[in-house]
Amino acid sequence: MNQISVIGAGLMGSQIALCAAFAGFKVHLYDVDEQRLQTSQQQLAKQMEKYIKKGLFSKTQFDQANDNLILETSLSKAIEQADLVIEAIVEDLTLKRNLFQQLDEFAPPHAILATNSSMIVSSMLASSTTRPDKVCNLHFFNPVFLMAVVEVVKGAHTSNETTQAAVDFVKRIHKTPLLLQKEITGFIANRILTKVMEEAMFLLEEGVATVEEIDLACTKALNHPIGPFALMDLTGLDTAYAIQKTQFELDNDVKEPSPLLKEKLAHGQLGRKTGQGFYTYQ
Predict the structure, then answer these.
(1) Which is catalytic among the residues 5, 40, 116, 118?
(2) How far apart are alpha carbons 50 and 261 in whole angstroms?
(3) Choosing from 72, 87, 91, 151, which is the catalytic residue?
(4) Catalytic entry in 139, 157, 183, 258
(5) Element spanning 137, H or E
(6) Residue 95's pLDDT is what?
(7) Active-site option among 5, 14, 116, 190
(8) Which of 24, 29, 89, 267 is deepest in the core (most CB within 10 A)?
(9) Predicted local distance difference test score (pLDDT) of residue 246
(10) pLDDT given at position 103
(11) Active site residue 139
(12) Is 256 among the residues known to form the active site?
């Protein structure tokens, strides 16, 4: 496996692409919006500058990774030589199924087609292709550079060879693979996290405690690195809502997204990226 293609230059896709480029892969990052590609490149540079100052990476490493990264607005060109394609677009099943049909058409026959989705299992996408045995989930966590694990989900349709290749890829980018031997919506981490967020929202809406107190309980009493409300602000309230809504639609054991969360979305309060979420940011 030498060439990687990442589809979608949003928050996750751009980080995944640069992470693979850091590991020495030639990476094609595709997005239909050229401006989004340029913006993602600028945001990555700012992020890397912070990491370089902290001594996590060197300027030389970043420059070498940038040399391995190619920006593309042509989907066929971006994946025509790919050994692995990682889809990282919005959590919309119809859009993903249409995309996987195109990936199947343009990618080489040997290429693995993976989705970074944390909610949509790959069996829901594999039927859009002629290579279901080469389709799987590769779920990264944000921020990609600092989070040490990647969930690898083997569906009933996924071959052992594909699973092993996905596991090997995760190791080559210096991450720890968490292998799920069968599909389940939300996988491991997000199923646990969803329950924490559901309870945090319940406590807030019932007036039991404030946002700050609930987050403190998680960070100081439970030793979580970040509280649930601060985490939703970090990843984006729109992302949190989309994940919860999808999981609600797919899993009867999950509650519908909180009315408070819907209200914040309606007011454009999406967290850190808009300066206002559950907290206010400069």
Answers:
(1) 118
(2) 31
(3) 151
(4) 139
(5) strand 135-140
(6) 97
(7) 190
(8) 29
(9) 76
(10) 98
(11) yes
(12) no
Catalytic site includes residue 151: yes
Beta pairing, strands 3-7 & 84-87: parallel
Report DSSP state, residue 280.
Answer: B
In which order are the strands placed within the sheet that holds 69-72? 69-72, 26-30, 3-7, 84-87, 112-115, 135-140, 149-153, 176-180
- Per-block mean pLDDT, blocks of 10 residues, the chain (282 long): 96 96 97 94 92 92 95 97 97 95 98 94 97 98 93 98 98 98 92 90 96 98 96 90 79 81 95 96 90
Q: What is the pLDDT of residue 270?
A: 96
Question: Tokens 């590991």 — which residue?
Answer: 23
Question: What pLDDT is stored for residue 48 in this prediction?
Answer: 92
Quote the tokens at residue 158: 């996924």
* 95, 88, 239, 147: CA torsion to nearest 10: 160
Tell me what pLDDT residue 231 has: 93
- Provide DSSP, 48-73: HHHHHHTTSS-HHHHHHHHHHEEEES
Verify whether residue 66 is a known catalytic residue: no
